Backbone:
């Protein structure tokens, strides 16, 4: 996997030339946006941003309003011009610095490499849905017939083929943003910039469009840089989350890393209201099998600290026998709905990617028995006891 | 003491000596007439020949045919039978009053002056919207064009272009073109920023941005400029008549000179009818464009 967008020490300062020059010195000293504004009159958009976005991932820029997330996003297609630093974008198999490239290259990147979806949709009201979707292709000089074909494909993709001839304002907000998405997809640009695309929509439609985006992404495998002020949204759709505050990047990491190990109080405050069950997976809370206590040799291991349940694991890592409260037990997947004889003691197992929610439901059904974790080859990799779950929940608070 | 006296004298002299603004102006126009007479003469003659041939062509048609054509045009533009009916009645009234040839002359004068104003005004408005500093210079000039009493520039225009329809058109254009300039400027300036950014983000060139985003977004405002421009042109009809332009202004001037109330009323009503028809026809149709 290679990098699609690479921010290197990007500073963006709004103001005239002299203000910017004076502000840069203060940025280097790490002074705050308020101090810089008071001293120079320049507004610090973002400072010292370093971030690499890998091909095919959804990288979410997160922060409160004014944290510089949109500012940074808009540097990718030079809607904001960085004062200092480089922004590399993959273009024809090489990395082009959009800060310094000539206008022709910039236009090519904007037409073919980087497409954008806007918060307020930014559709052109005098154009029909169809004409809006074809806008980027029209600018790039794609011939009429080809354009028509690609527009129809995109409209079918976002489920708007019935609406092609309508004007944008005749559509609901959710539909308008689908048009915005189709317009961006139509250019077949591999990189997609999404500037709070769902924030202007009501919650139900927002969730629906998030799901649709994830489904489309599974098919299209774009590189998406997504700006959001909503952590739930970020955790839901992001492969990687970057948290920004006052123009600076505070933390970058996978969603569960952010939730489990917040870098500072700002991030901690952010995640305070997040339901960890929807973010964490079994993998995040399990104890590795090497950390499990030996239960009488011969491959027996205690799954929990209370020593209620033990597995006998053979040298290949497969489970040979199970015992719960001293009685032989069955082990069944916690995703399984098949009904087993209710009296048989059983131990549920999960895959590392199973959500913590499912694991906890299994624990509840089995009267707080630990849950085992098996990998794709059914090898035993670790276990989750009730204490591990509680620990994960409490650590964040 | 002595130097104080000197100051007072100098100041007094400054206040009492008249600055010869008027004479400078005259010198400027003398310079223009003596050096660029060929330019102004050819401009005047080409304007008047175009206008008179247009008038002749329209007069060649029987009035009822021309009325039918105008009514049809009004229906095509606005798709409203009420307007078509009103147009027909209004024009028939003018015909009935015996002011047909004057009306055709005025129509040609107004339409061509409005067209020239738009041709000059829209590009200047676009240019000013893209060059903020230029507009700060342009604004006082536009104010001057609209507030300087028309009679003041009637005199130099008369000297440069002579009597006739050409100076009438020129004066009308000077008076009317600030409207399309201002409204085009306003229209382009108020294009929502996200729309411009959408254009830029998808790789529009400056020209594509103008034709595919700015002008369509500004079109309603520019069209309001056209309507205003036509009304301003109509309001100049009487003044144009003072320097020899034919049309409905002529009977008004004649009525004024001879205190002829009936004639003044008839010609004045004809102007009003024409104004209403042109205004309704040049309005942007709501519902069809968006």
Residues:
């Amino acid at each position: 996997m290679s990098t699609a967008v690479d921010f290197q020490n990007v500073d963006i300062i709004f103001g005239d030339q002299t203000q910017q020059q004076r502000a840069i010195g203060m940025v280097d000293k790490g002074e705050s946006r308020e101090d810089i504004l008071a001293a120079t009159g320049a507004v610090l958009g973002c400072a010292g941003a370093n971030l690499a976005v890998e091909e095919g991932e959804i990288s979410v820029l997160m922060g409160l309003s004014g944290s510089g997330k949109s500012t940074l996003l808009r540097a990718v297609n030079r809607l904001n011009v960085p004062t200092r630093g480089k922004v590399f974008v993959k273009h024809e198999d090489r990395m082009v610095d959009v800060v310094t490239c000539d206008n022709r290259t910039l236009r090519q990147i904007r037409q073919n490499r980087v497409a954008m979806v806007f918060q307020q949709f930014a559709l052109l009201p005098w154009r029909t849905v169809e004409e809006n979707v074809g806008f980027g292709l029209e600018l790039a000089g794609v011939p009429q017939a080809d354009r028509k074909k690609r527009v129809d494909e995109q409209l079918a993709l976002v489920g708007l083929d019935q609406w092609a001839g309508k004007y944008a304002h005749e559509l609901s907000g959710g539909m308008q943003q689908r048009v915005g998405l189709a317009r961006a997809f139509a250019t077949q640009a591999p990189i997609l910039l999404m500037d709070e695309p769902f924030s202007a929509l009501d919650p139900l439609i927002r969730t629906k469009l998030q799901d649709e985006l994830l489904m489309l992404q599974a098919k299209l495998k774009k590189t998406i840089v997504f700006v959001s002020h909503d952590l739930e949204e970020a955790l839901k759709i992001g492969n990687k989350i970057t948290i920004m505050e006052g123009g600076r990047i505070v933390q970058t990491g996978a969603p569960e890393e952010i939730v489990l190990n917040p870098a500072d109080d700002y991030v901690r405050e952010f995640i305070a209201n997040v339901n960890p069950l929807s973010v964490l997976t079994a993998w995040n809370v399990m104890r590795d099998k090497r950390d499990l206590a030996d239960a009488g040799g011969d491959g027996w291991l205690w799954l929990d600290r209370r020593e209620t349940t033990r597995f006998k694991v053979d040298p290949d890592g497969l489970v040979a026998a199970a015992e719960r409260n001293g009685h032989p037990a069955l082990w069944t997947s916690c995703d399984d709905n098949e009904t087993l004889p209710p009296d048989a003691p059983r131990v549920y197992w999960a895959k590392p990617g199973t959500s913590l929610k499912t694991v906890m439901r299994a624990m509840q059904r089995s009267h707080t028995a630990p849950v085992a974790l098996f990998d794709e080859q059914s090898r035993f990799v670790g276990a989750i006891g009730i204490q591990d779950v509680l620990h994960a929940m409490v650590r964040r608070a | 003491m002595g130097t104080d006296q000197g100051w007072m004298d100098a100041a007094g002299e400054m206040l009492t000596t008249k600055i010869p603004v008027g004479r400078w102006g005259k010198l400027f126009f003398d310079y223009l007439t003596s050096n660029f007479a060929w330019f102004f003469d050819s401009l005047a003659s080409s304007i008047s020949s175009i206008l008179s041939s247009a008038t002749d062509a329209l007069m060649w048609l029987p009035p009822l045919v021309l009325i039918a054509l105008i009514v049809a045009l009004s229906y095509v533009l606005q798709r409203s039978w009420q307007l078509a009916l009103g147009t027909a009645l209004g024009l028939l009234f003018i015909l009935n009053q015996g002011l047909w040839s004057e009306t055709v002359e005025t129509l040609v004068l107004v339409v061509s002056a409005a067209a020239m104003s738009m041709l000059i005004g829209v590009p200047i408005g676009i240019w000013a919207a893209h060059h903020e500093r230029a507009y700060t210079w342009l604004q006082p000039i536009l104010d001057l064009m609209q507030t300087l009493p028309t009679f003041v520039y009637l005199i130099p225009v008369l000297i440069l272009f002579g009597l006739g329809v050409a100076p009438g058109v020129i004066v009308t254009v000077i008076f009317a073109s600030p409207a399309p300039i201002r409204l085009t400027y306003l229209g382009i300036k108020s294009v929502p920023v996200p729309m411009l950014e959408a254009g830029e983000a998808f790789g529009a060139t400056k020209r594509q941005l103008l034709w595919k985003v700015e002008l369509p977004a500004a079109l309603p405002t520019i069209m309001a400029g056209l309507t205003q421009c036509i009304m301003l042109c109509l309001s100049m009809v009487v003044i144009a008549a003072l320097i020899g332009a034919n049309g409905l202004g002529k009977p008004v001037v004649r009525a004024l000179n001879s205190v002829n109330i009936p004639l003044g009323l008839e010609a004045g009503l004809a102007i009003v009818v024409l104004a209403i028809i042109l205004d309704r026809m040049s309005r942007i149709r709501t519902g069809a464009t968006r």
